[in-house]
Amino acid sequence: MDQEKFDKGLETRKAVLGDEYVEKSLGKATDFTMAFQEYVTTYCWNDCWNREGLDRKTRSIINLSMLSALNRPNEFKVHCRGAVNNGVTKDEMREIFLQIGTYCGVPAALEAFKIAQEVFDEMGV
């Protein structure tokens, strides 16, 4: 493992998802799953999220769209929180979810609104 890339990815991961969530994920890692935590932190959070081509807010918008289309509610919830941390507003999320309804279907949009409301309530947004 490249420690420098891991550390940079960890910094980004915590900035987007929050220290508590990331520390909990890492703390629950076992000998079996730690390799995946290292992979996600290095590859996703450093090699992808730290690229210069898009800002974090844009990456969050893209993630919300893709995770909704793929019907990944657990990751959607995590990235909904990250989107708030990256400056995506409730009004912007509403528009994203309406767009999801058009291209991914009403059930996908309904789930997006439901999960986002839970996150807003938890975060006091």
Task: Provide a brief overview of the structure.
Residues 36-118 form the Carboxymuconolactone decarboxylase-like domain. The protein is mainly α and 125 residues long.
Overall pLDDT score: 96
From the N-terminal CA to the C-terminal CA, the straight-line distance is: 38 Å
CATH architecture of the largest domain: Up-down Bundle
- Beta-strand portion reads under 5%
**Number of individual domains:** 2
Structural class of the helix and strand makeup? mainly alpha
The CATH topology assignment of the largest domain is AhpD-like
Number of helices: 7
In CATH's first tier, which class of the largest domain applies?
A: Mainly Alpha
Low-confidence stretches: none
The total strand number stands at 0
The profile of the biggest β sheet is: none
Q: Secondary-structure element order, as H and E?
A: HHHHHHH
Structural write-up:
- It is a single chain.
- The chain has 125 residues and is an all-alpha fold.
- The chain folds into two domains: 3-48, no CATH class; 56-123, Up-down Bundle (AhpD-like), CATH 1.20.1290.
- Helices cover 79% and strands 0% of the residues.
- It contains seven helices and no strands.
- It has helices at residues 3-17, 19-27, 34-48, 56-69, 73-85, 90-104, 106-123.
- α6 packs antiparallel against α7.
- The model has no long low-confidence stretch (mean pLDDT 96).
- Residues 36-118 form the Carboxymuconolactone decarboxylase-like domain.
- InterPro entries: 4CMD/NDH-1_regulator, AhpD-like, CMD-like.
- GO terms for molecular function: peroxiredoxin activity.
- This is 4-carboxymuconolactone decarboxylase.
- It holds the Pfam family CMD.
